[in-house]
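Notes for week 9. Today we move from apo structures to complexes. The key idea is that a small molecule is not decoration. When we ask for a structure prediction with magnesium ion present, the ligand SMILES becomes part of the input, just like the chain. The input block below holds both the sequence and the ligand string. Read it once before you look at the output, and try to guess where the molecule might sit.
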Amino acid sequence: MALLEVRNLSVHFGGLAAVHDLSFVIEQGERLAIIGPNGAGKTTTFNLLTGQLKPSSGEVVFKGEQITHASVFARTHLGMARSFQITSLFPHQTVYVNALIGLQGTQRSRYRMFRPLFKDKALEMAAQELLESTELWDLRGEIASSLAYGQQRKLEMALSLASKPDLLLLDEPSCGLTTTESADITARIAALGSMITVLMIAHDMDLVFGVAERVILMHYGEIAAEGTCDEIRSNQMVRDIYMGSRKTLGHAR
Ligand SMILES: Nc1ncnc2c1ncn2[C@@H]1O[C@H](COP(=O)(O)OP(=O)(O)OP(=O)(O)O)[C@@H](O)[C@H]1O
Ligand SMILES: [Mg+2]
């Protein structure tokens, strides 16, 4: 059974078919990248998968369960996590408090949500573990908004891993990062265990080819090409769409 199955998914904004009749599957443990020019419908697809947006038609099946109309909360608890294209931290809180809040939000027992953050030893230990594993522990006292952009992205990704998701959705995880930071995030994603299935949107082809096993090219809300990295590299349509850009396949509309 595929981990995620997308069947004939469409969404319209007025007259615009932002996503049109999209179908694909992701197997457990797979790393799949979605590429495509600006406005191709990549983020809209993520919004449909995570429940931020309801489709006009089509279905989303996750772990064999029909989740097309399930809430964001229900999907998170089924094992989906998402890191946003635009950062979604609590900017005026410390790194540590962000970790506590992020972890608390993933706890299954709802009454725990009402416990004071600093009176929960298990939560504090989990936050320490999370921050240490992502080399952010030394920055725990810093206010999130004062961190360098690259560190903020790193924290955001750490938080999206807090729920120990089965499926991690990453929307342009290296966007705005320096070359060194991009290489670091690429290595981190590549090093995620096979228990975590990764679906990511990326313009950065070093990231795509460094992480993905399979690539989907979206164009005008549809799948224009699909294949392994090698197949995508040599695909004429990919070249046509991105003509003139050797490394970064974005911003080519
Ligand atoms: N809430 C919305 N209302 C109206 N139109 C929208 C909405 N969200 C997205 N769109 C439009 O749908 C199309 C697809 O947008 P989307 O954000 O999915 O593109 P994308 O592939 O993620 O692009 P980028 O690479 O720039 O992030 C665009 O034309 C966009 O303007
Ligand atoms: Mg987008």
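The domain at 1-79+165-253 is CATH 3.40.50.300 (Rossmann fold).
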